């Protein structure tokens, strides 16, 4: 490969470098050593497919992208086991998914949504951050995915997903260029709630020569992002319509907090508030002649209420594929624990110390699961309680007869941030490893 | 390269593959696609240095290591900025370290330890998981590092650290083989608290033809791992002495919980209990003729008490390089907040939404910092409070006049698990990026 080609390669976006890897014909690595500012290029032969990708890259090069402002490093990541291994061979702490339960949940969602023929479901990738699972969800009927971060969206495009709603604001021209770059390869929509951000998004899309769909995020009660219902929504929609390369698509009306209200009646009532604020926003638009035919929102805890509202055209369940201790505390209309979906996600841990008669210590602590929604439960040990033992330890009281080396399956307190701590999801069927999927969208969300 | 060489390469330990990368002469990638069970080998020329490493790898091959049971994948990691960038160019959320404060802390530790001439300090890498920082700590006088996980220890060896205490139990023969493998390249010590684990460790060390130093972990009050002081310690020391390829080195006597006791007098009293239990253990050994000349423990909150005890020969401070909100709550003997060390670590975040007069929303949530020890503080904004806004959001109340796009520097509540969420530490000096260091020991701790 010529030096000029290496230069081009190194200066392209991450997504294209990833494509090069996928083309299986050759490889270029750019390794920057931050200490000595030295760059090393390793090249192998490139065939036809790669050359065409190179050409694509050349066309999409932004003037600011050059070899000196794209710093990447390479890493090898070791999987915690191998395909075909029995679960006893999986190094811990590891994230496991029971494939039968995952498949049950996929099927259950498809069946549930049949009751709402005018409403699509767009599964939320923030739960798993794993393109392979998104692809299974799309195969089971989802129209596309939601992402909460640009990192997730990049991972999804690189993993073959072609319809993505970034259900969050992306701030700053650098990130917006990354977002616009994705629109070359997939249908991309993003949420906004401020005028300057809309201007920046239009600029980035114009620079890249793409069009990005835009949703106004409405504060439907969560008091986080989003503008107030009514006139503020109208103002932003008009702003979007006034600028090039962005297309007003509809409204994002999601309240995360109400997903975890325990009583079914209370959850339904809370969705009533969401719908009221949504309707107010639609009316403000309609009164000024702006038709809004796309309303999206709702999560695992409430999506059936949004879906049956006659207002929402799309729902965004995410956690249903995995479930967790927190969602397991929600009650259904019969005041029973919700049982629509099965627990499919676990953190596998090993007993590393036992003080007989007192406690057992697990090797899974704060770095293996998130405690924000409470501690994990020990699957199959309803009599044992997990206590936070710090970054690398869990304390189980009583010891329950556990021995050093025993495996313990933990049900995470909160699935999304727990998955974020792991590089791999190990898929199990009948006690054996069937697949090892990279959680390629993980990270703080840059 | 011959296929047999490729086979050898792919079947060696991670540490040697990493070495190959570092030799700058050639490169082999093994990419396993878990879907089709296909492996692809990309090879470039290998020079003399690489060949010698290959030979080393061959010698250290374990019979169970072959091409089919070592699954690795490659990833590119994009840094959030480039060297020389102003801080305004750093994509958020990112982990920042102010190098001047880091250097102040390194120097302050060296000076503090001069008061205890018979006591070494071994800095704890669990805080930063970053070999570059360990190297700075060793240059400033540390005798080596502690690691809490095998993943951290592997990263440290690969990053050039040659004296490592694994201050935790490593369970299972597979992991113990990885540990023993490291002893080929560095001085390795590990902690134990059960007989079967000691047998496994001896077996792994014997298989690899290495000797591993072993410490008995004593439960000095933390009620986590460790055996009770006295006879149980003696029993394990004798077990260690009875087996080949492991060497009884001394005692691990650390209580993490007491680091965070607020009053200096109460912390000192709690160390008194630690020392009492340690002395009891030393006596039990001495009564049976076992000399114990190595006692290690103590953290950032208490190390001066352990160092002045006349019992401890080594202390293990970690958090002092960074500090955090939690350690900032500790009081000194004058009932003032501790001020020995400076805050050097921050999470840089961007304001993504503002509801004027009410709240500002940051792009740093549960995936950018750990809330286990409380929420982060906004540096320079003592009047503003951070509230948990979920995985990707922080809610700041009141809005403090913040505008969309403003950068906010967050002081993490707890430094160790916060660092664990980030791939890079961005080093700043005078507002510009001077270095970008990989947090190569991060992860759940496999």
UniProtKB/TrEMBL annotation, chains A, B:
Keywords: Lyase, Pyridoxal phosphate. GO terms for molecular function: carbon-carbon lyase activity; D-serine ammonia-lyase activity. InterPro entries: Ala_racemase_N, D-amino_acid_metab_enzyme, D-ser_dehydrat-like_dom, D-ser_dehydrat-like_sf, PLP-binding_barrel. GO terms for biological process: D-serine catabolic process. Its cofactor is pyridoxal 5'-phosphate; Mg(2+). Coiled coil: none annotated. Residues 344-429 form the D-serine dehydratase-like domain. PANTHER family: D-SERINE DEHYDRATASE, ZGC:162816-RELATED. Belongs to the DSD1 family. This is D-serine dehydratase-like domain-containing protein.
């Amino acid at each position: 490969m010529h030096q000029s080609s290496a230069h081009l390669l190194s200066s392209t976006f991450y997504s294209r470098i990833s494509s090069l890897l996928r083309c299986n014909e050759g490889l270029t690595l750019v390794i920057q050593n931050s200490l000595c500012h030295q760059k090393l290029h390793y090249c192998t032969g490139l065939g036809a497919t790669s050359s065409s990708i190179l050409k694509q890259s050349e066309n999409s090069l932004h003037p600011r992208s050059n070899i000196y402002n794209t710093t990447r490093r390479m890493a090898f990541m070791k999987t915690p086991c191998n395909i075909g291994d029995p679960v006893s061979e999986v190094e811990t702490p590891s994230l496991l998914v029971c494939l039968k339960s995952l498949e049950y949940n996929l099927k259950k969602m498809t069946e549930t949504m049949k009751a709402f023929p005018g409403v699509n479901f767009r599964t939320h990738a923030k739960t798993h951050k794993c393109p392979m699972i998104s692809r299974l969800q799309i195969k089971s009927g989802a129209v596309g995915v939601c992402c909460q971060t640009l990192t997730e969206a990049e991972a999804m495009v690189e993993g073959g997903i072609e319809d993505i709603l970034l259900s969050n604001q992306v701030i700053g021209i650098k990130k917006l260029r990354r977002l616009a770059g994705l629109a070359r390869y997939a249908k991309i929509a993003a949420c906004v709630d401020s005028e300057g951000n809309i201007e920046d998004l239009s600029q980035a899309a114009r620079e890249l020569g793409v069009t990005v769909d835009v949703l106004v995020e409405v504060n439907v009660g969560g008091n986080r992002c989003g503008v107030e219902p009514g006139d503020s929504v109208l103002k932003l929609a008009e702003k979007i319509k006034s600028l090039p390369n962005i297309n007003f698509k509809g409204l994002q009306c999601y309240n995360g907090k109400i997903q975890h209200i325990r009583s079914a009646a209370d959850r339904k009532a809370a969705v009533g508030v969401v719908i009221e604020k949504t309707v107010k926003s639609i009316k403000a638009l309609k009164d000024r002649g702006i038709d809004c035919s796309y309303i999206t929102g709702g999560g695992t805890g409430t999506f059936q209420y949004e879906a049956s509202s006659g207002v929402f055209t799309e729902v965004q369940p995410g956690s249903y594929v995995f479930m967790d201790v927190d969602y397991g505390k929600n009650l259904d209309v019969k005041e029973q624990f919700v049982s629509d979906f099965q627990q499919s996600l676990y953190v596998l841990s090993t007993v590393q110390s036992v003080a007989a008669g007192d406690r057992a210590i697990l090797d899974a602590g704060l770095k293996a699961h998130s405690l924000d929604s409470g501690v994990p439960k020990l699957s199959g040990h309803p009599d044992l309680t997990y206590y936070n033992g710090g970054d690398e330890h869990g304390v189980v009281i009583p010891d329950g007869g556990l021995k050093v080396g025993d495996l313990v399956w933990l049900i995470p307190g909160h699935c999304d941030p727990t998955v974020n701590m792991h590089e791999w999801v190990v898929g199990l069927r009948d006690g054996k490893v069937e697949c090892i999927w990279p959680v390629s969208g993980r990270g703080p969300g840059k």
